[in-house]
Amino acid sequence: MKIALKMKFVSAVLLAFALATTTPKVRAQAQPASDRQAASTSTASGQTSEPEANDKDSKKEAEGGEEAFRKSPSVIKLGGMLGMNPGTASAVFEWFNALVLFAAVGYGLAKMLPKAFRARTEGIQKNIVEARVATEEARARLSAVEARLGKLDGEIAALRSENDKAAAEEEAHIHATIEEEKQRILQAAEQEIAAASAAAQRDLRAYAAGIAVDRAAAQLNITPEDDRVLIANFAGKLTEGSRN
């Protein structure tokens, strides 16, 4: 019993696939008949307008296609195998065709969407990695700038200290140079004063000696004869001194 049911189910599935492939053909075959019927109706009446005729034609085509599908031998045979009337069997087969279509679309999406999601995820991860690398580089640059700024404060303090030291040394050198120049000027002035004082003393002594000689000469009243005698005595003393 179970084997017979399985065989019927397999046969029904195969017929359903066959029906799914033959349904468009049945409807296509039903369409020319309905077209001919609609054309003859429109020609016979001659009173309906073209849009209304097109609407009626499309409705008749749809009704004719559905009717041909319901009354097709495959539908009747498959419905008889499953214990269903042609109308119910056609509805079931239409739903089955829709499920097959949805399944095919779902399968295609299931094959495509993971790849798309994977590519999107990889792109997002790549962007995250690039952003992380850029952030780390920015942090490294910021750290380098902060380190330079820290060193800059120290360098400024060192330069200020060196400038203060150089200014103090320059000031001390200037003071020493001024003191040396002052001492030199004082020594030169003292030497000039000493030389002038010595010259003045010599002049004063010479003047005093001249005055003394003049006064002595005036007091002695030496005559020319006395002058010759004194000279002769002085010459004699010199001669005796040279002999000795």
Descriptive report:
Residues 1-28 form the signal peptide. Residues 142-206 form a coiled coil. Belongs to the ATPase B chain family. By secondary structure, the protein is an all-alpha fold. It has a domain at 2-122. Helix content is 94%, strand content 0%. The chain contains 5 helices and no strands. Helix 1 packs antiparallel against helix 3 (73-82), helix 1 crosses helix 4 and helix 3 (73-82) packs across helix 4 (86-220). Residues 1-8 and 22-49 have low confidence and may be disordered.
Largest sheet: none
Give the percentage of residues in beta strands: under 5%
Treating each run of at least 4 consecutive H or I residues as one helix, how many helices?
5
Q: Low-confidence segments, ≥5 residues, pLDDT <50?
A: 1-8, 22-49
Percent helix:
over 70%
The total count of strands amounts to 0
Listing every helix as H and every strand as E from the N terminus to the C terminus, the arrangement reads HHHHH
Structural class assignment = mainly alpha
Give the overall pLDDT as a whole number: 72
Radius of gyration: 73 Å
Shape assignment = rod-shaped
User: What's the end-to-end separation, in Å?
Assistant: 189 Å
